[in-house]
Specification:
This protein is α/β, with parallel strands linked by helices and about 150 residues long. It contains three helices and six strands; from the N terminus they run H-E-E-E-H-E-E-E-H. The protein has a six-stranded mixed beta sheet with strand order 1-2-3-4-5-6. About 30% of the residues are buried.
Length: about 150
């Protein structure tokens, strides 16, 4: 995935959107749309075995697992020190932020996505840290079961 030239400059969160939950929902929608455009299946709000909840989890066609943590504002990022707890449940980890977010504070070792309610772009990819087989199987089964249960509930 690569950043489409000009994408970031032409997108902004509408001025009437001010609350953190609204911005978070827009980020999640844009991220899932971007992931789908690149062939990844994604789910929102995925509970992990360590008690954490991934904002967005995605599965690539070859079984790679991505977790995307959405950050609606600087305060949201500053009070969240739990993001390293997600690393043991994914092959790649990204933060997704709005265009106005101060990107320089995002750690270099993780990926960076800029998104809005309509889509997103990967501005910085991250190196894959492949999961061990047993963890990959457990997370993939979690993903599949959660997707099936949500589909059946609709």
């Amino acid at each position: 995935l690569v950043c489409t030239p000009g994408w970031c400059e032409n997108r902004r969160v509408p001025d009437e959107i001010h609350s953190r939950p609204e911005i978070t929902a827009l980020l999640a929608r844009g991220v899932t749309r971007m992931l789908m455009d690149h062939g990844l299946a994604s789910l929102l709000e995925v509970p992990l075995a360590n008690g954490r909840r991934a904002d967005v989890m995605a599965l690539t066609a070859n079984g790679e697992i991505w977790i995307v943590e959405t950050k609606s504002c600087l305060e949201d990022y500053a009070v969240d020190g739990k993001w390293p707890d997600y690393l043991e449940y994914c092959d790649r980890f990204f933060f997704a932020v709005t265009e106005d977010f101060p990107r320089e504070i995002i750690p270099e070792e993780v990926g960076l996505i800029v998104a809005d309610g309509f889509g997103g772009a990967v501005l910085r990819d991250c190196a894959a840290r492949p999961l061990v087989g047993a963890r990959r199987k457990a997370v993939t089964l979690l993903f599949a079961r959660l997707a099936a249960l949500r589909l059946a509930a609709d």
